[in-house]
Design a protein that fits this description.
Elements (H helix, E strand, L loop, with lengths): L4 E3 L7 E3 L4 E4 L2 E4 L17 H11 L2 H7 L6 E3 L16 H4 L8 H8 L5 E7 L2 H16 L8 E4 L26 H4 L4 H18 L1 E4 L23 H16 L17 E7 L18 E2 L6 H12 L11 E4 L3 E2 L15 H11 L5 E2 L28 H10 L12 H14 L1 H21 L10 H7 L3 H14 L1 E5 L10 E3 L3 E3 L2 E2 L5 E2 L2 E3 L4 H4 L4 E3 L7 E7 L6 E2 L3 E2 L9 E2 L26 E2 L5 H12 L5 E6 L15 E5 L4 H8 L17 H6 L25 E2 L2 E2 L3 H5 L3
Parallel strand pairs: 5-6, 6-7, 7-8, 8-9, 9-11, 10-12, 11-13, 15-20, 15-21, 21-26, 26-27
Antiparallel strand pairs: 1-2, 3-4, 14-27, 16-19, 17-18, 22-23, 24-25, 28-29
Helix pairs in contact: 1-13, 2-13, 5-14, 7-8, 7-14, 8-9, 11-12, 12-13
Length: 733
Amino acid sequence: MGTPRFIKNPSGPVLGVTDIPVLKVDGLYFKDMERTGSLLPYEDWRLPAKERARDLASRLSVEEIAGLMMYSAHQMVPSLQGSPFAAAYRGKSFEESGAEPWEMTDAQKKFLSEDHVRYVLAMYIQNGEIAARWNNEMQAFCEALPHALPVNISSDPRHGASKAAAEFKSEAADTSKWPDGMAMAATFDPDLCREFGRVVAQEYRALGIATALGPQIDVGTEPRWMRVEDTYGACPELVTDMARAYCDGLQTDPGASSDAEGWGSDSVSAMVKHWPGGGPCEGGRDAHYPFGKFAVYPGRNLEQHLKPFLEGAFKLDGPTGKAAAVMPYYTVSWRVDPSGQNVGNSYSKYIINDLLREKYGYDGVVCTDWGITQDPDDKIDSFGSRCYGCENMTEAERHLRILENGVDQFGGNNEIKPILEAYWLGCKKYGEKAMRERFERSAARLLLNSFRCGLFENPYLDPEESVRILGCKEFCEAGFAAQLKSVVMVKNNGVLPVSGRKKVFIPGRTIDERKNFFRGLNGKQSQAGADRNKVEEFFEWADSPKEADFAVCFIESPLSDGYSEEAGYRPIMLQYRPYTAMEARKESIAGGDFREDFSNRSYFGKSNRAANEKDLDLILDTRGAMPAKPVIVVVRMHNPCVLAEFEPYADAILVDFGVEEKAVLTLISGRAQPEGLLPVQLPADMETVERHAEDTPLDYCPYKDSHGNVYDFGFGMNWNGVIHDERNAKYHR
């Protein structure tokens, strides 16, 4: 590929080109992307982005528009042998090929040139320099193709300070580390969230990323949901303010020209998810899996789940106005559609066309969640296609139905054939003129985000500049300070902070066999409680309780699974000891699946156990071995859980919603003071969870500890006691 060169305009954007012709008009420079020798509207950066997008959409073939509607599979840079989504280089594995780590794979060359894909999803990227060079390779490759359409690289969240268990979290690749989801929510600070969004935008653009698959702005009303940790908590007002702030920070380029509505080369398009809210999943079961496909509204609170979209992401304070894109969730929003249809959200005319497009006037990109158009798996306990309610359709018919509803893009689909088949089905149904117009509407929306982010003028990166930006001292220090603000202390018997280099005992952990995200089996694991090297930056390491001055027990919230092939439906647990659901519904609200000969998904009377039940044992055993010494518990809280089983035995409890180990140790040592507040309630017991309504915010009974403190929304402590400040005065039940 050619080396990019950069052409400065006397008044206007810098152009990045490899071998494309450059036009000079009125003393200004423009890229001759059509190679016509004359300036076309979409090539003229002086025109509004919407006008340019419409002009280019009209010039694209149906096949080229279908390419825009697709997303690549997850890309690994480089794609190593044996890694997920492995690919070949010149017909060989990466290791055998002698390829540079930034070179394009055979599959990438094919889907860019033959399938016309331009939205590429990056998963693993080795480092910033490789990311920049890979970006430049793809952009130069596409510059030589018709229309010189640039690649728009996308990513799932990359900045989280802690490894999460719910869904894909992409490799950080040199980025700074920040609290995300509930951890950011625990700061109760939308201004900090806006700062985070601005840092993410700068580091993403240094990696070549122009679209963020986030933020996740579901209201986390259901504490058992595996994705609640990625939300901004259970208070609609706090979630709304966080959503608005993050999108503003992500999309607004401080250096944008006055006529660009806040968009520029430092902007990243936000794809907010998940419309109309993925939080109220029945019994906490997640819709990645057929056994968790239903969202229910026993409290009739759909509007509370729409609030972060309508009053947050769609009503930004900054000049970009609204989030550039929206992703509906997999769920069947049970009995929300007045017509009585119960289908996945992207298949629902009512939820997409009638509500999102028409009633609320959203005109940005709508992209389905990943993998909803292929044929379903024959097992209900599977990670297969999620074509809920439309299983009897062909793939082409599913694509057409989704397009009819006003969706523009198919997440996780990089097969062009069913989209083209859907086009011709639509031509038979509506006529070719109407179908062409429908395709062009989506193309214009999809192209608009690339025009707004400056990709048509300069999609290229300077690898040295990328390395300088990524993980720079300023961003890393800001991210770590934010982590410290996010940790919540809910109990302290006067043992914190621990001063001096005292000896600490940290017991190891055991996690039993359990299903993983892809429904494969993770074997039994034994692991250290903490990284000894990191601990010894603060304290002396003790190998036994006897020689220690104090103990720290690092644990996770209970890990359980709401379905198994042997037991069927069963309770998702928020406690450590085995549990039998005697307060659960005897009849489920929603049900029905072609793989089941029943519709009642109740787990009343069934039992379950946590894979990490031994986390509770290690606290009790440590307490028994150290009856007169401080025992501190640090809970990595994926889900709001029941602390009643161990709270009386702990001298202090810190709740970590997703930070680095170093942040917790910094607080324990007194080098910083805890400031976080609970963005959720911590339930008194499982019975109160069973009695609550999945769609209702903050409606269960919170735990009261042995000191009389109630672990309710907005509760937190610092060294002086319970925190009462402007944050929990503004956001409260």
